[in-house]
Amino acid sequence: MIKLGVNIDHVATIRQARGGIEPEPIQAAAIAEQHGADQITIHLREDRRHIQDRDLIILRETIQTKLNLEMALTDEMIEIAKDVKPDIVTLVPEKREELTTEGGLNLLPEYKDKIKELKDAGIEVSVFIEPDLDIIRTAKEIGADAVEIHTGKYANLKDDEEIQIELERIYDAAVLVEQLEMRVVAGHG
Length: 189
Description:
8 helices, about 45% helix
């Protein structure tokens, strides 16, 4: 069954750019839920460029659907996640110079212990990766519960043949994720 997750980061981006208290990401989340969103997604960046710690805390207390926290795999973020307990953590790469997440996470074997730490806290762990079959197999090996397939390349292509090739890569990736008994998510496209 297809479910809709709504990312409210850019509402917070506008608030931060204006230096005020509006627009309020908490209100945006409530509106999204009222109109059928199955999940609210936020990215608490290390530089706190848009979503702030208070947003995460208030959202955890107020939303009625699932809360998905996108974050870098750092000790600070792991502690925040364990404290706030979002329903889902999606591990994403994070570069200070990028405007938005531009590509999938490079999965490393040493992530296994940190993923286990989050799972032991009762948090589902997803990894944001490219539609690459080897990387998907690594996601399973290190204990991910879900895979979010990066669809950005597909969304930005113009040539029909290239679009079809990328769509097939995404499809094949989704099939493998399901075969490996992980949840499939697609996004950033």
